[in-house]
Amino acid sequence: MPSPERQARPLFTQTEAPTFLSFVKNLDLDLATLPAEFGYENPVLICLDAVLAINRRYQQFVVPRITAFRTRFPDVQSLRAL
Question: What 8-state DSSP symbol labels residue 10?
Answer without folding.
Answer: P
